[in-house]
Amino acid sequence: MKKLLIAFVLVLASNLIFAQNTTYQGVVEEFFKLYEENGPNEAVDFIFSTNKYLESNTDQVTAIKLKLGTAVAVIGEYSGYEPVIVKEIGQSMVQGTYMVKYARQPLFFTFIMYKPDKYWQIQTLRFDDKLTDEQIDRFENKAE
Which of 5, 20, 65, 115 could form a Cys-Cys staple with 92, CB 3.0–4.6 A? Predict the structure, then answer.
C-alpha cells in the first residue's frame, strides 16, 4: 500500500511539472515564480531544463547565471515583471519580451519558445538592461 501511494504521488508530481509546459504562458509564469521565490539561478536552471538539447550546455547556463547575478546585485530590490511584447510566430513559436522591475532600473528578458510537439521549450533566452531598437519599433507600431 505504501509503495502504491508513493508511486501515485510521484506520477501526480510529474504531471504537474509537465502541465506547466503545455502553454507558453505556463512556462514563463513558472520561470518568474521561481525567479521571485528562489532567485534567478533556479529560474535559469528551470527554463533550460525545458529543452533537453540546451540543458546539457552548462557553459552557456553558467555564463547567463554569472552575468545575471552581477546585474541583479547592483539594481536593487525585485518588484515583479510584466509583458512588454509577445509575438506568436505561427502556432509553435512565440517570442516574448518581459520587463523585470527592480528598484533602480528594469531588466528585459526575451524568451523564444518552441513547441515541437506537446510541450513548450526554450530556444533562446536573452536579457539586457535596455530594449533593442527593433523591439522599440515593434512596441511603437503595436501602440498605434
Answer: 115
139 has a pLDDT exceeding 70? no
Q: What is the CATH number of the domain that holds 87?
A: 3.10.450.50
Pairing status of strand 78-88 against strand 93-102 = antiparallel
Rounded CA-CA distance 12/54 in Å is 26
Contact 32, 43 (CB under 8 A): yes
Q: The C-alpha cell of 64 is what?
A: 547567463
Q: Is 122 helix (H, G, I), strand (E, B) or coil?
A: strand
Q: Which domain holds residue 25?
A: 2-143
Q: Which residues are registered as beta bridge partners of 96?
A: 86, 111
Other CB atoms closer than 10 Å to residue 15's CB: what's the count? 9
Asked if residue 65 lies in contact with residue 125, where contact means CB atoms within 8 angstroms, the answer is no
Residues 60-82 have pLDDT tens digits of: 889 999 999 999 999 999 999 99
Tally the domains of the chain: 1
Q: Quote helix, strand, coil % in the chain, to nearest 5.
A: 55, 25, 20
